[in-house]
Amino acid sequence: MAESKGSATITIGNTSIDLPVFSPTVGPDVVDIRKLYGQGNVFTYDPGFTSTASCSSTITYIDGDKGELLYRGYPIEQLADKSHHLEVCYLLLYGELPDAQQMLDFETRVTNHTMVHEQMQYFFRGFRRDAHPMATMVGVVGAMSAFYHDSTDVSDPWQREVASIRMIAKLPTIAAMAYKYSIGQPFVYPKNSLDYRATSCTCVLPSPPKIMSYHDAARRS
Questions:
Q1: pTM above 0.85, yes or no
Q2: Which of 8, 69, 165, 167 has its CA 20 to 30 A from that of 31?
């Protein structure tokens, strides 16, 4: 929670309510209205949350009117220009950009989880061939908790980390499977001897693959 900066008083009829004011690291001060209903028997009316902070976050800050989006304090345009996907994933998970050794370890862990459970392929058969791949992917991602029971306790930091790494690793595989299903081609399994980007690209190669190295495919993508 941001640092307390004092209080604000709101008067409703004959009732005055003192509400704490907090000063965040970024953005305007906020008035904590959580006791407003309990003491004043009123709600606030703010369609679209245009003047409401929905949570306290150390991960993301967004100001749509100003066009600002920060991840762990870094502007999104800076990350898009200077960092790649897995670096940003590491930043979001651990709060800082990785050094070379941390990046190597993280990419290795992610790459080793790109394969999905074999039974998950049967979910795709329940969707129409002309279903949008995004709709298909959302349905299959939702089924992951039915296969990976060892990482569903959100109160356990280790399980949250495992679930996050699995999601980062398996999402490109599932997205590729949804695409391949929509065009009537067989699934292509990840090739974990390659790096994360090349592994993701192999899953959408034609079947049978054209004569093209996996690294060439990744580079052209």
A1: no
A2: 69
